[in-house]
């Protein structure tokens, strides 16, 4: 039953407005706003994750072009880059680290190629999560698994075109997912 109050004008009764209805409207508005803000937070999280993935791909591209420039700068000894890979040169860490091969005056062209490969692979490992890379002569560059091991890299050591292959684990991928790969082909 509605409560009524007396009206001074006509001496009769008129309905009293309901109290508390605006509180329900405010509550519904707050709930809708909260859901919208949660959606924006989720969108921001996905955006940041995708932005970081794009950054990693940019790093892989930059590293691949860096290696191509190193090979072009040492054209006389460009064959050594493929031979170093196919020989799976394990001693490079002790031979190359701090040996003064950053300039042509400090070492031979072969030592410079070895040093360039060492420094480049070190940079790949430092800049990309689980980063691995290889440079080799390859007639079919778009093959190989997520490893720079000579057998798994898909390098056939044929032809005159070099392939730079860079692998890394993308933070968006589920554990155990196939690593991301960037491949670039060039001729010195």
Individual helix count? 4
How are the strands of the biggest sheet laid out side by side? 3-4-5
Number of domains: 1
Mean residue pLDDT:
79
* Portion in strands: 5-15%
Largest sheet: 3 strands, antiparallel
| Apparent shape | rod-shaped
Alpha carbon gap, first and last residue: 93 Å
Total beta-strand segments: 5
State Rg: 32 Å
Can you write the helix and strand succession as a string?
EEHHHHEEE
Low-confidence stretches: 86-94
List the SSEs and their pairings.
Elements: E1 4-6, E2 13-15, H1 21-73, H2 78-86, H3 92-96, H4 109-127, E3 132-137, E4 162-168, E5 180-186
Antiparallel strand pairs: 1-2, 3-4, 4-5
Helix pairs in contact: 1-4, 2-4
Protein model, in words:
The chain has 188 residues and is of the alpha+beta class. The protein has one domain. It contains 4 helices and 5 strands; from the N terminus they run ββααααβββ. The strands form 2 sheets. The chain has a 3-stranded antiparallel beta sheet. A two-stranded antiparallel ribbon has the order 1-2. A hairpin with a 6-residue loop joins strand 1 and strand 2. Helix 2 crosses helix 4. The chain is rod-shaped and about 105 Å long. About 5% of the residues have low confidence.
Describe the structure concisely:
The chain is an alpha+beta fold.
Describe the structure using short key phrases:
single chain, alpha+beta, three-stranded antiparallel beta sheet, 5 strands, 188 residues, 4 helices, two-stranded antiparallel sheet
